[in-house]
């Protein structure tokens, strides 16, 4: 089968590889309908994360179940499924608390690489959610978004305790930040301030429900948020970048007692203890437990109440995966969808 | 009046100073019945925090109201009062959310120094809580504890979302840690594991409701907690020390999705972003909003349901304040009470 493989920073190739096979009785093999390039795939692409050997890429996927192991009971061949980027048993205490991305048996689904024709999904019963019937073709981008980028933005909003009456700030206007705006709107936020300095992304943020755009960042951005919130700061702030600057901006935009949900993978971030102590904000972040939210998100998509698929502004054949990486790296695209 | 003043690390003197006077119409002057030495007073005493000039010490107090400003409406001369170590208006949005220690008009009560015969308390209506009548003499240590060390341990437990069915770990066996054990018990925790290696403190922890004692610390301590919790980690962990080691120990003892409440003043602490991200625990800490809890804590003390005053294992005349600092610095005392 064809599969996207990263050889080195800046070097993504689509090549022939063996089709994956069942390795455990709890596995499923799916035929991938669509996959995509994640902001986190750009870390190794840019050389910030090491690439030690040719590495199959991709961890976001939707597809049709081809084969299941003998112990799989809820997922059947022929079903259309959406899955989280982290495989979980969905039965351990951590999963039952809603933190499936940190399941005691967690495995990264992306180990096999989802930017491919076929994908092995471990712990299929606990990882995949099937749609009631085959979805309309035009809903596939939105369902694909649910497997990571929407689930991640949604978790950011939930972690930031977004809700009615709240003023919400979103730091970061990538696909996750934009979908955090969508999530904040769905969760009933009163005011949603998107911090963005790109016209095209501001436009989508406003479509998704942002009430205000702030173009300043760093100390100026914090001052602006304070000014807009009576000097207090926002109730809920979603951090969707993962740098030192964006984390501190998020923390400083939050009022004492408020909540920061951080979903940008925090590379090279060090939080100063004393400032954090006196900020007195709630912090929660990490890899999104997408599985917790999938049933609700799939339902919202199938009822056409949300349209997260709009974040895909570039659609390519899997064969052209390298173009997707380049376009995202150069910020010519927010997010690239790949069709095997 | 007599007052304890720190001249330099290791140099605390009791000397004559002017009695404080009303400076704002929202002030009260109280005659201090009892004050004490805080673990945080040891930071400058040990030279970790700078002492630039002779500094009046102490921020924990109970006393009798002597005089109030013209705008004070709820507090009257003659009342016995307990107050937070941070003055708050108790009317701003931050206070109404329960974070009075970060009130938009916050002032440290300790600026004037509570280890003295008299103390000026700013924002008296929002800071002080009066008891219904003069309390029995033997309850004064417990009421004094409420003004900081009990309120702080209690906040740690609330921030860690302690509740029925939860396994709770307390890192730190100083007065705050011990009272966090008491708080966890009151809040209905199922299991309370005190991490302590001092026999006298273990004894008090058990009296206050600890169900288990763990003497290991660092990686060994974390491994022990994991072993005791089915590999998952604790639901709620209270950090009551404030060092890099204790913060990391607390975070690593917590299960994904669990809660860390940190109340040790985090000096020279840096939290590694990537580890925090993958730990996926809730974090909340800071100076305790004691004012939020005072009515409930005072009530529990007056009804003799809790006895937080037991943490005072050394009682001295104010004149001997220096001995209190020395005893706590040398760990001969958990906490020293001073009588003016």
UniProtKB/TrEMBL annotation, chains A, B:
One of its GO terms (molecular function) is oxidoreductase activity. Residues 10-338 form the Enoyl reductase (ER) domain. The keyword Metal-binding applies. Gene3D superfamilies: Medium-chain alcohol dehydrogenases, catalytic domain (3.90.180.10), NAD(P)-binding Rossmann-like Domain (3.40.50.720). Keywords: Metal-binding, Oxidoreductase, Zinc. Its cofactor is Zn(2+). Belongs to the zinc-containing alcohol dehydrogenase family. This is Alcohol dehydrogenase. It comes from Winogradskya consettensis.
